[in-house]
Write a structure and sequence with these properties.
Layout (H helix, E strand, L loop, with lengths): L1 H20 L15 H5 L5 E4 L2 E4 L9 H5 L7
Antiparallel strand pairs: 1-2
The chain binds iron/sulfur cluster (SF4) (2 copies).
Length: 77
């Protein structure tokens, strides 16, 4: 499928660019509901739900921003 062939390299390049930029994210606990959407989407398993809140391991995070995109509570900053 042409669209899929186009999107996959773009996604990989975007993830690589963000990782190289060293972007790190953190969780705003006043907004996090612990829904786990960020945990499920993280490609490197850097997210864990602890005590009902999402927690990002800064050493494992590659800065791809996928958790930011999936959080519907604007809790990833
Ligand atoms: S997706 Fe957002 S609200 Fe849900 S656990 Fe992650 S940071 Fe919290
Ligand atoms: S930015 Fe990417 S690697 Fe880092 S915690 Fe979010 S989904 Fe995982």
């Amino acid at each position: 499928m042409p669209l899929r062939r186009f999107l996959l390299p773009v996604l990989v390049l975007a993830i690589a660019a963000l990782a190289l930029a060293g972007t790190k994210y953190r969780i705003d606990r006043t907004r996090c509901t612990g829904c786990g959407d960020c945990d499920r989407i993280c490609p490197v398993d850097a997210v864990e739900i602890v005590d009902g809140y999402s927690t990002i391991d800064p050493d494992a995070c590659i800065g791809c921003g996928m958790c930011l995109g999936v959080c519907s509570h604007d809790a990833v900053r």
